[in-house]
Amino acid sequence: MRRTSLWIGAILVGINVAVALLTLVWLPYDPTAMAGGRLQPPSWAHWAGTDRLGRDYFTQVMIGARIALTVGIGAAALGGLIGTTLGVLSAFAQRGIDDALAATLDILIAFPTLLLAMLVVAASDGASLGTAILAIGIAMSAILARLVRILTKRVLAQDYITAARCSGLGWGRIVLVHVLPNIAPTVLVAIALQFGLAVIAEASLSYLGLGAPPPNASWGQLLQSAQSTVYNAPIGVIAPGLALMALVLGINFLADGLRDLLDPERGAA
């Protein structure tokens, strides 16, 4: 029973991954083609109806799954890499440097992730898929760095680290053999949770016009463009909203299941 969350999350995320991969080889319609009339209701020809330009809406939602996963995976990987590196370096640094890095991380964490991402996008050349990944990844890295710093200090305080140092093991080897394996379960769960936040942040940036530019059909962009016709064609808001909710819930369930799987004592409790 304690792995129920893991299975539910794996199914929801797996469906989104399958849809995203399917868009690489097949789509119901050309995403830029006016395949029907404007704002048509759902039908056998158009499962989610059409948008205000006559484009197939189900095709747009499918492409949105690919964009959400691309940004989520890219931002989580980038944030995890930066955060882990900074956290380990801070734990090994001298007290003055450590305190300065810790204060800097606290300041960055005080800013909302979306606000930091908006500042990074504003400072770059313009909105794009790569810019969104970079912005969200940098914004997420402060939280992960703070967590890794705390976990690394806890590991370095153990007696077996002292024994390893007395045996002549270098700090680089200690990090690879002792530190990273011990903090990996907690960090992986944190990265999985940040993955869900990255998907929401990408949708928010796209809604504000700071995400991937058209013709990329991000879910946030679909929500923004459909708000003016929500009373005439509510499916334009419902479809991307449900897709976004399903993916984020799936990621959260998956992270919760991984936490139970990697921490048997918590799962037994």
Automatic annotation (TrEMBL):
Transmembrane segments: 7-29, 67-93, 100-123, 129-148, 160-181, 231-255
Domain of life: Bacteria
Protein name: ABC transporter permease subunit
Classification via InterPro entries: BP-dependent_transpt_permease (IPR050366), MetI-like (IPR000515), MetI-like_sf (IPR035906)
UniProt-listed GO biological process terms: transmembrane transport
Chief subcellular location: membrane
CDD domains: TM_PBP2
Phylogenetic lineage: Bacteria, Pseudomonadati, Pseudomonadota, Alphaproteobacteria, Rhodobacterales
Family label: Belongs to the binding-protein-dependent transport system permease family.
A Pfam cross-reference name: BPD_transp_1
One CC-aspect GO term: plasma membrane
Keyword Transport in annotation: yes
Membrane topology: Multi-pass membrane protein
Domain ABC transmembrane type-1: start-end pairs: 65-255
N-terminal signal peptide: none
Location(s) in or outside the cell: Cell membrane
Alphabetical UniProt keywords: Cell membrane, Membrane, Transmembrane, Transmembrane helix, Transport
